[in-house]
Amino acid sequence: MKPMKSDDPLRDLFELQEKMHRLLVDAFLHAGDTDEVAGVWSPPMDVYETNDAIVLIAELPGLARDDVEIRIDQNSLVLQGERKFSKDVKEENYHRIERHFGAFSRTLALPPAVDTEAVKAELRNGVLEITLPKTNQLREGAIDVPIG
Question: Residue 93 region, left (φ>0) first, then alpha (ψ -120 to 50), else beta?
Fold first, then answer.
């Protein structure tokens, strides 16, 4: 028996796309032993330099201060944290999942002359801004940066 030709090939393509999307969502939702979506994501960052400081801006929508850790170790700034998958909505009620969840870690090489005692970090409206003032003194050891 011959398969029937559809009157609307675009509709067929859209239906196929939706079926593939549902397969992928199911695969991610049921992957591993947890209820969270398994995946790796990396928040986008902008880094620029002024005469007095290096400024890092990272997009972290949905994260609170306690979800993020900032550490300076020798010549690197480490930004890490986790965005957890919402358990308020049942898995079967989702039609589409496009946001990324899970743990992340970004490392940024720094010039040797950053004043680690004066580093400031602020998280506002899902945007983290870290200001790393420059100095003429070299730093030693590692420090944790509190988020204001």
Answer: alpha
Distance CA 83, CA 99 (A): 10
What's the whole-model pTM score? 0.63
**pLDDT tens digits for range 119-132:** 999 999 999 999 99
Cα distances (Å, whole numbers) of residue 16 to 10, 11, 28: 10, 9, 19
Q: Give the integer Cα–Cα distance in Å for 103 and 126.
A: 16
What token pair was written down for 142? 């590692």
Sole residue written with tokens 């695969």: 27
Read off the tokens for 128.
């983290």
Tokens of 76: 């690197």
d(CA 67, CA 81): 5
Return the CATH number of the domain spanning residue range 9-145: 2.60.40.790
